[in-house]
């Protein structure tokens, strides 16, 4: 049983079928194929407006390209200090931007609060040549701790950065899970709330390797074609990504997958809470469950061969600090997670 | 009928099947999966030695990562002025290397001669801080004009750069076609002839998006894992590329595909020569035919809806310069090209 | 009266004379002149060993070149979060290194403790491709809060980083003040304590624009000539910097200047302490005095036209936090500061 | 006798005096001093319009900052293949621009012709993501072979690039010599002829280390303050450069120096032509004389201890190619060159 990540399963069956179906015949290269074109239309429909769409194969590429298009080399990107762009991409944002500074901010559960952002901005002198200039705020939806930003929370963050003119980026590696959790429209938690550019994740939600940079204002998209090509992320057989997204977006398949993953996580969280043996590090709002595991629990899981990963405790709230021997265990559910697996895991945890 | 490029068809049936077969179950992420591990073994077998293998999805990424690992920002890369790295990658090598200089050299048919390389090196002062320092020679196999370097030609180039300590990179976007054409072993035209690092192309030869950087001396590979990750080219579901290569390398499938493509090109070239109406811009040595097309021929092809592209004439030999109205037409054959298509094209060309 | 910074006076008289004296006749370009060569010898003497010396005009250039020579683009530099390289150079280290990450650590008075460094290293996984790799620790001597590292403190930091193989860089913008304060030899607080590369500051200590990167192991210096040239920091008339350093280093002039500046600061600190009206934010160990200024004091200073700057309170110890209305005022003494000026300032502060 | 370069003498006496005079008292840091402010006014006067002025210490920095402010990382800069930015700055433009491509074009005497530029542009596809996009043309005034662009020649180049929207940069390392030679106003050969940004050289014309980037349209200057700081080129004691320029610009001193240097070169060229023993590689239009030197002449010069450098023959016209044993010798005159030195050199050359 593997709860390590939502990127360890392959593609969902409909996505795999879409890839296979896309294999026939000749197609124009470098993203000029029919699949990619159709996907651009599907995204416009999904977001209820014109959008510029750039398909790539990894989330790191999507995030880094989005940032590089909107931030100068002497710019600063504000984000949570545990954000993927800050902590897990080996400096890719710095590489793509030409050396911009990623400024990490605190926040329980990897969520940023408007006053924390405003305080940081107040400490960064506008126009001073000695310091990098804040140009973008990046938030993760759902966060690295599985929490979800509500539309009004996003709007409040946008309001905090508006006086200084920062752009708002959303790392949506688990955007589908957030939409499914909130029951809102994609538009509501993106451009309607102030998001300028979105990394729309497919890979963690049933695709093999498919991410889309969605730029809401075409004026922000001008650099993307060159930045993408120059980074080696413009696939010659672009339909490989296009087909995956067509498979995902058709008939709301992407949301069905996310709802399933979320349901599995909720099932696990409920069972844990019902058992009353372990505490959740953060509320379960999307497809991840973070449990505070005493040593006994760690041993039990190891004995049962249940795979998960020990997660950073850096975003725990003050009142939730770990005791000696405890770790935060991350259990991620994906489209491929089975209810029986969740129940078996819950059973193991309940017998501690 | 589409002779525009060998990257317009999808994947060969066995490759597509390998991808589909790889879709089941969980697999370790970021290239630690079983497919990738097996492919590393297959490459070691293919090259008859230990090699370090780094899978990526595009040739631009493969080339740029290879260069960046071996060249300082103040280094220079020598190559043909029409080489893909110099002319078709939007400055990706400059991006990945941190601004190294790509120095373009002349050569008929995009082939470099040792004396041209040596002359260039003689013009670059060793140790002078005012000039970038030559650190790598990159050759393309087969060349952008469809010509093939023989093992002894490669060895002679290595000899030309050895006194200055340059590394030798081979852009093998059409490596399979070259191996098939030469009938030699992969080892013979790579490390045995002095190649230090190879971009082994899969995408133009039946894969969807699969390229491998093959590093022959592990001492040259140390930077690659970080450079790849940092460029967003480390796929979380790495088996997507691994499976493609497993499909390609199994049972010599990659060579079968290349032999077919070469045979189709040879069939076209022979027919053209037999008809005696058009001249070849360069000899047909691999899977591409370059024809000098007078206006009448261009019109006839357009009338028949036959697709090809007008190619640069910059690597034509002195005695082969174009006349007024002529263009060089590039006709590329791939694994998917049918003999009947070739014959129909040949028939059109024969009736001019 | 101006206590804003030690870079607001011009050059000391002997330095200015050395510059004027260097103006005659022709001299070899680009650092091959006699002045630069002599200065290289003087530094070797000063540090009691062979050193590689690279002269530049700014501290930002010195620091950034030093870092870039020793850190990969995917490397991380540990330093205090208020260090000049982290907070005051507009991302120059990121620019020169190709996007390495500057990781800011806490520490009272901008001094780093070995356990803080070791804890940070423990959180950075060695060999993981998802994270940047720590490759260098940079400390500032004297610190941005005017404190001084003793030889054994530096050695302890070196010990903390040794297991992970990090290099140790010292930003010595106020190196002279530290040496004067400690009464030790330059060797003792640099290479003998584990420093690999030093930015030796001249500009804040009586030069006009003269900084030297001192590399103690020549194996670490190989990239510098190209990196410096490529950054536009190789002056054609290099004697302009060479002469300044010759003026500074002759007859211990640099130490005389620093001793004077330190004495002026000590005079001010003593007077403040004697008056008992204001508290020092940090101990006065070199040439800077940081005072906690209530609003009344700020008003009195403004009324007297006494210039200083409000300094960051981010490196204050827990027990020293500011009260409402207070600021930290930085008063810097330089070679040009007069005792009467100090006394007048002290008098103003004593009458609060 | 040293004719190697115009950067081997120190500063002219008035410039040195201006530096010494600037040494008194405190001054605001980082270019906010009175000298820099006055120099900004002097440049506005000189160019008969508002200009944005950025002082730096080297020509490489001036050129690279100018380029980086106007060219994207995926942009291309067109220039002569022997231009300083292409051949003598160790890739600094690539470093500062984040990897833009420097595209070298041919031209006798390092002068570019409009049709050569237009032909190159025609070969670069607008909007194609596979290729870097031309964004700037850089010309050198006077050229690396000592030739001068006339206002109408500059205007014609501007016309050639206007349809593609390229900016026009002038590397004016020897701008003073060109103005002196042409007898025109600085405005006439810069913004009135279409130049957008100028590297105004001081160092080769009597300063110690003083260059100015002059931006004619303030909309082009927005990035400069950050790019300069981030490159370590914002001197804290900025008056060091400001004073040099004040010395140079006062009372037309800069033009007097250039006229003298030009006159010395003309004296040498006339003498050589009168003697009829040697041919000039290119016409003497500014302060440099390029002579085709047979082996006998090389030996005679060596015997007399006369220093010059062998120059590239790559920009010789077809009809002027070197014979076996010949080299191009470059003899540069500066403000410090004496008539007697010229005459002694001429005498040596006349006796061959």
From TrEMBL, chains A, B, C, D:
Entry keyword annotation includes Transcription regulation: no
Residues of the Aromatic amino acid beta-eliminating lyase/threonine aldolase domain: 3-277
Catalytic activity: L-allo-threonine = acetaldehyde + glycine; L-threonine = acetaldehyde + glycine
UniProt EC number: 4.1.2.48
Biological role: Catalyzes the cleavage of L-allo-threonine and L-threonine to glycine and acetaldehyde.
Protein's UniProt name: L-threonine aldolase
Oligomeric and partner information: Homotetramer.
Pfam families: Beta_elim_lyase
Membrane among keywords: no
SUPFAM superfamilies to which the protein is assigned, alphabetical: PLP-dependent transferases
Keywords for this protein: Lyase, Pyridoxal phosphate
Required cofactor(s): pyridoxal 5'-phosphate
Origin species: Bosea vestrisii
Family: Belongs to the threonine aldolase family.
